[in-house]
């Protein structure tokens, strides 16, 4: 059998080799036939010589008839021999052709076996890849289902947050920058979430309208138990992850309007600005108080001197009264300014303390 994985260029070489072998075998067979003919001829001659010696005593008539019959038999035998030679040559050629066909078919069978083995290996490899992809697809489907559930949960939390914002009329600020117009932000948020007020009404209750919601999501697992226990609600998602949403704070509308008047954009800078404003106002109040004390001392001294002299200088009485009235008016004006500044400072202190308290209690939302 031919070796496996034989190149296609060896087919012609094998055919030529087979033809050469067939030609050599044909020559050998022809030589054998010729040799066999020579031996038969010698045998006939010997037989003819012996018969001629044995029949020399016969009559000439019998000899003539026997010679003519032998000549006829020899011609018939030669004709039959020629026919047999032609048949043998044809059979030899057929055998050679069949042998060549047999070799070619064996070679093709070996090639087909090699192809079958290659296809079997490829099928096994593809089947293995198919099983791996099938397992990966099943895993991806499980991941999709899990992420879909988490997405639905997050949507419910956002709806709950928006419902709380709509119910309490609050403003959500935060992210990278503070909203430039918190009032319009609240109105837009109220308009986009108004359809949830009828479906989710009554689900969330609170005793205080000052709510702080950090990182934009809420967790209502224990809200009904905690609403009546605190003045503010802090909502967060319980899942832990490394991805954090931008910082957001939920405040009242009045606080948002106050923050909108500030020049800073971020919440931290606004708080720092409020503290600096408070320090400036404190310094201004102290300055006004010191000025008020100085004015009091300055206008009390002439009055004392005027009383001690028993009004000796009556000509300057009207001027002194006029100066005293101006001093009283200025003192009253300073008192009003001081009172207004104190009110502003107290309001700012309450807002700042409220925001600081909420920021200190701020949890980090993890998805």
Automatic annotation (TrEMBL):
Q: List where Low complexity composition bias occurs.
A: 218-233
What PANTHER family does the database record attribute to this sequence?
LD07988P, LEUCINE RICH REPEAT IN FLII INTERACTING PROTEIN
Record Pfam families: LRRFIP (PF09738)
Show the segment(s) annotated as Disordered: 218-241
**Transmembrane residue ranges:** none
Superkingdom classification of source? Eukaryota
Instruction: Report which residue ranges the record marks as coiled coil.
Output: 67-129, 271-337
This protein is called: Leucine-rich repeat-containing protein DDB_G0290503
What are the BP-aspect GO terms?
regulation of DNA-templated transcription
Keyword annotations of the record: Coiled coil
Q: Which family does it belong to?
A: Belongs to the LRRFIP family.
